[in-house]
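About this split. The held-out portion is used to measure sequence recovery: a designer receives only the C-alpha cells and must propose an amino acid at every position. Recovery is the fraction of positions where the proposal matches the reference. Here is one held-out target exactly as it appears in the evaluation file.
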C-alpha cells in the first residue's frame, strides 16, 4: 500500500484515469490532398492527450492530482512523465509499457486554423482492467475520479466501477464518442460531460443549440447519468444538475484565439472544485470562467490558467 499518493499539501484530491499523447503539430498553408506533399511553416512537439490535459488543468486549478495511465519506454514517455511531475502530479500509478510506444497525435493546422488529427494510441491501449486493479488505492484516496474514452473501454468501465465501489464522485468526459454507451455505464457516472458533438453521437439527437442540448441531456439522464453538462463552445453549457430544472449558462464573452483544450480545462476545473466540496452549480460556473480564459491563449496545456487567475 502506497503511503503517500497525493503530493500537493492542500485542495481536494482528483484521480485522472486516461490518455497521454505527444502532440506533433505542423502548420501548413492548407490541409494536404491525398498523395500531396506540402511545405509546412512550423513544427512543435507538445504534451497532450485528454487525460494529461485534464490532470494538468485540475492541478493548476488547485487539486492534488494523481494520474493512472501508461506511457512507452521512450523519450516521449519520459518527457510526458516529467511534464506531469513538474505540475506536482503524482505519477506513481503512471506505468511504462515495455513494448508499446508512447501515444502520438499527428496534427496538421492550416491558415484558417482548421486541423486534421490522427492519433496512434500506442501505450494508452495498454491501460487495462488489471492496470486499474493494481492502482485501486489511488482511486480509494481520491475525492473525484475523472475518465475519458481515449483509453480502452473495459479499463474505463473498471475505473468507474471501482470508484463507485469506494463511494467516489465520478466524471466521465465521453470523448471521443463513437456511439451510445453500454447501458451499464451511465449509472456509474455522477457527471457526464460531453461536448455538443459527443452528446449528439451518444443520443442520436441534435445538440448544437441550448434547447436541443437540453433534450439530449434529458435523454442521457433517463439512461442513468445523475448529472449532465453539455458544453457548447462559445455558447457555454447546458446543465442538468440533480432535481433542478435544466439551465443554460452562457460562457463569458472573450476573444477566442485557440480553443484547443477548452473542454479539458472545463473538466479539470470542474473536478478540482467538486473535489474541494464546492456545490455543483458554483463548480460549473468556475469551470466556465477557467475555460474562457484558456481560449484566449495559444496551445493546449500552456493555455490552462492557474487558480490565482480564476475568480472563485
Ligand atoms: P471541446 O473543447 O471539448 O470541443 P467546447 O468547445 O464545448 O468543448 O468547449 C468547452 C467549454 O469551453 C465551453 O463549455 C465553454 O465554457 C468554453 N469555451 C469554448 N469556446 C469558448 C469561447 N469561444 N468563448 C468562451 N468560452 C469558450
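Reference sequence for scoring:
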Amino acid at each position: 500500500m502506497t503511503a503517500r499518493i497525493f503530493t500537493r499539501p492542500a485542495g481536494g484530491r482528483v484521480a485522472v484515469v486516461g490518455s497521454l499523447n505527444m502532440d506533433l503539430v505542423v502548420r501548413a498553408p492548407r490541409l494536404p490532398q491525398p498523395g500531396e506533399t506540402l511545405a509546412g511553416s512550423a513544427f512543435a512537439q507538445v504534451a497532450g492527450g485528454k487525460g494529461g490535459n485534464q490532470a494538468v488543468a485540475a492541478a493548476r486549478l488547485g487539486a492534488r492530482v494523481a494520474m493512472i495511465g501508461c506511457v512507452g519506454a521512450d523519450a516521449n514517455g519520459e518527457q510526458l512523465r516529467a511534464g506531469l511531475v513538474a505540475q506536482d502530479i503524482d505519477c506513481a500509478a503512471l506505468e511504462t509499457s515495455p513494448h508499446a510506444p508512447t501515444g502520438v497525435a499527428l496534427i496538421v493546422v492550416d491558415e484558417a486554423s482548421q486541423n486534421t488529427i490522427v492519433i496512434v494510441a500506442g501505450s494508452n491501449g495498454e491501460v487495462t482492467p488489471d492496470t486499474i486493479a493494481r492502482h485501486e488505492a489511488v482511486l480509494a484516496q481520491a475525492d473525484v475520479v475523472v475518465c475519458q474514452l481515449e483509453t480502452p473501454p473495459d479499463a474505463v468501465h473498471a475505473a468507474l466501477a471501482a470508484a463507485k465501489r469506494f463511494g467516489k464522485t465520478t466524471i466521465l468526459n465521453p470523448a471521443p464518442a463513437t456511439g451510445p454507451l453500454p447501458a451499464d455505464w451511465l449509472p456509474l457516472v455522477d457527471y457526464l460531460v460531453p461536448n455538443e458533438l459527443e452528446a449528439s453521437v451518444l443520443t442520436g439527437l441534435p445538440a448544437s443549440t441550448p434547447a436541443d442540448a437540453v433534450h439530449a441531456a434529458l435523454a442521457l439522464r433517463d439512461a442513468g447519468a445523475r448529472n449532465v453538462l453539455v458544453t457548447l463552445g462559445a455558447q457555454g453549457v447546458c446543465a442538468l444538475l440533480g432535481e433542478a430544472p435544466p439551465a443554460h449558462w452562457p460562457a463569458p464573452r472573450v476573444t477566442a484565439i485557440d480553443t484547443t483544450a477548452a473542454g479539458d480545462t472545463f473538466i479539470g476545473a470542474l473536478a478540482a472544485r467538486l473535489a474541494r466540496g464546492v456545490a455543483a452549480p458554483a463548480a460549473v460556473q468556475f469551470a466556465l470562467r477557467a475555460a474562457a480564459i484558456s481560449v484566449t491563449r495559444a496551445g493546449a496545456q500552456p493555455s490552462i490558467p492557474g487558480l490565482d487567475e480564476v475568480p472563485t
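Annotator remark: The chain is about 30% helix and 20% strand.
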